[in-house]
Structure formats: C-alpha cells, structure tokens
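Researcher: Please translate sequence to structure tokens.
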Amino acid sequence: MTPPVRVAIVDDDALVRAGLIMMLDGVEGISIVGEAADGDQVMGLVDAHAPDVILMDIRMPKVDGISATARVRRRSSRPEVLVLTTFDTDDHVVRALRAGANGFLLKDTPPAKIVAAIHAVANGEPAMSPQVMRRLMDRVAVEAGQHQRARARLAALSERETEVVRAVAGGLSNAEIAAALFMSVATVKAHVSSILSKLDLDNRTQIALLAYDAGLD
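Model: Translation complete:
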C-alpha cells in the first residue's frame, strides 16, 4: 500500500491553516504532519516532521514564502513546495518557480483540485491554477516579442558596433572597451554615438537594456 503524502502547512493566518487542516484531514492518501506561522519556522518544521509537500503562503511577516522555498530547496533531502496564495502577480509566480516551487495555486482553488495538486507535486509533477498558467503563457509571449523586436533593432548595427553593445551591457567603461576591443577611446566614443543614433536611444543604460532584451551575452 502506498504511504500517504506527508503535508505541512506554512501560513501566517491561523484561520487559513485551520481551514486547510480541516479540509485535508481524513482525505485518503494525505497526512497532515505539521504547521508553521512564518517562513522562518520552515527549516525546523522540515527537520521535525520530514514532510513530502509543503503548502506555502507567500506574504508572511518575517521570512516570506519565496525565501523559505529557496532555503528548503537547497537541502539535500528536500520536500516539494506548492505555493498556495491569494497573490498571483507575474513577479510572485516567476520568483516562486525560480526558488524551486513545483506548483502555484490560488487559495480559492476548489478542494479537490488542491488535493490533486498535492499528489502531483509529491510525484515531481508541476501543478498550476489555470489563471496562473495563462499569466505565465502571456508573459512568455510578451518576452518573446520583446526579444524578437530587440534583435531586429540590433540588426541595424555593424559587427563592431554589436561588440561595443555587448561591452556596454557588461558595464565596461569607454577605456575598458577600448582595451578589450583594441581600439582608441575616441573610436569607442564614436561607436557609442553611432549606436545611440541608429537605435534612437538616449544613453548607455538604454543600450544595456536593449542588449538584455535581445539576449546578448
């Protein structure tokens, strides 16, 4: 018989924790093993109860859920993290996933779907609310469009000017660019001026941002 998924709940709202415990208690295949009121308690919770899955809130007073997720996921023996929150901003979603969360659900997700998500992440599979997945797809589409537009703008530059763009994006000064590319400082200045003119930009910071959008490294 497959052992139940060991679940811990981390949320600073006692009513939310109680509600989740009430909802999940007695559900076949799930065992609630512990709870915590803040992200700073997560490591102790993991050490004491060895959960398979942590239901993690984002907004907490001492250590937020994203930081707590990153700490947990750095462990050699680490539980999966399913973020369960009322906040679904693009930044929260992306930061949580980069920190190592394997799922992101809103707190108004129906109980049956939360249970299914717990089992999914316990098996190493991702779990996302449809709203969250839509936002991620939209963000990817926007970033892909930005990348293509930035690449198209940089195509107007010569090979040498593109090298200067990379150097500017790397934070090099004119003198450092001159040394790296074996040209005079005056030539570097001329290239920078030409780049600004061709790309209709105002300053070096805008050059660096465009290089970032284009994926230059």
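Researcher: Any highlights?
Model: The longest strand covers residues 30-36.
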